[in-house]
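hey so u asked for the seq, here:
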Amino acid sequence: MTKISRRQALIGTLAAGATGCSSEYGHETFTSPENAKAGAFAHGVASGDPTATSVIMWTRLAPASPEGTSVVPLRLEIAEDPEFANTVYAVGVEANAAADWTVKHDATGLEPGRSYYFRFLSADSVSRIGRTKTLPSGSVDQARFAVVSCANWQYGFFNGYDHIARNEAFDAVIHLGDYFYEYGHDGYGGEVGKDLGRLHEPAHEVLTLEDYRARHAQYKTDPALQAMHAIHPMICLWDDHEVANNSWEGGSNNHQLDEGDWVARRRAAMQAYYEWMPVRDAEPGRAREALYKSYDWGDLLTLASVETRLTARAVQIELEDYSSEFTSQDDVDAFMKNIVGAEDRYMLGDAQLDYISNAMVRSKSEGKAWRIVANQILMADVRTPDLVPYISEEIIQKVEPVFSGIRDFVENSVFKLPLYLDSWGGYPYARERFYDRMIENEVTDIVVLTGDAHEFWVNDLITDDAKKVGIELGATSITSPTIEAFLGSGTKDYALLTTRENDCVRYYDPQHKGYIDLTFTKDKGKADLIGLDTVTERDYTAFITASFEFKHKQDTVEFTKNKGLGLKERFVY
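ran it, structure tokens below
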């Protein structure tokens, strides 16, 4: 890995005498499974989008001779026990060619807060047994979630999913997007995938309905992903790669003119997503792209999921399109005010903003203890630290093949621009609009969950006029690379510098892959950041990289305790 020189290192730039960074604890070693079950139900089973009385049940049938067959009858059974001695629900369902032989059934009439077991049966085959859970009602003491994002098949094995599947205590998995990636063998992760013998299918970038279906099918053959789906219901959000990188309402920076019509590609991606994921179909009158919803865990919490890509997002601003004009801080200030901060740069849109706001208001009026927003992209106002003294030409050349704008990014970091213009930082008007709506409704205690960045984040959410509206917990990736792939041994120092230079950032870990183990009780919340030592081997070690508790204080949420931080990290916390 590229190393930052002693001259460039940040050692000594923080607290005098401080030593050490985060310490890992709670180590356990596991082996991720290599093979999934073959046969008629080779893509496993899944459940998701739960309510108090219903859950979406999913599978896919692989008919032995699909030619000449358009519909195959199946049977779905749901029981209170894994032996199916007490079956409480049974119904005939169909796999059909029009839906790529996927089966999705809304099982209704279930009891709140109950675990159920389910399976699908064909004429001569039985699926694996799945386990799911309805949302509770009434008084609820605790809820626990696994929070995940960014799983690129080519970058490694889904060891994080395997670790989650081993823990029956989770009430649901919250997937914040990038469930799969659209690239071909020559794209993002291809070189690593070639070394691992883990390349995407089809070999090219996915563009058509057939392509998107095939990519979904490949991911659902992964045994760790199947195991996680089989034991936990999932609450799904998509980010950009479920269609194409850096997608927005009218296109994507990874959709070129010679790749056909964008609307047709988006339509194909949406159709495949709704076929292959355990998610409810769009309500009548709502576009498929408008995947925003809310979920209630009794009197404990409300979880609202947002859609930040396809519904209303304005096109991303590319820094390199403007950076040649930056000669002074005044130039940058004008850029931030007039270009980045323009009032037509929407993110959620009016309908979604109203929906999320109403869900939060209802949650507070009903006396629920917590209000959670599941969101794809970094929300806190994180700015770049001045990287010029620390990033060498060697590092720039290493990063340029995957981020062509790295040179401009480093040179302009002195101006403290938003860290990611693809995140809420590139849409400050939309962010302040969201914050203002929360403040107007006296909801200033939100807990925002964030994916996309391949990094752990622990942030305060603060408006431009210094009002606190809540906190943010960012989940790292399942396999997608962190910045450590480029910065090497300088990554810890980069993290410390970023934390030190941003008052809203309490903790930042761009090294580990993994997920968040998130628990809520009436009195407090706790986030254990679960790291993995490898995703390029199936034998892996899982550990808690750091742990944070938070509580309600006055009208907002504050971090109260932490564990696992080194002395330097405690200093900048």
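The chain has 13 helices and 24 strands. The chain has a mean pLDDT of 92.
lmk if thats what u needed
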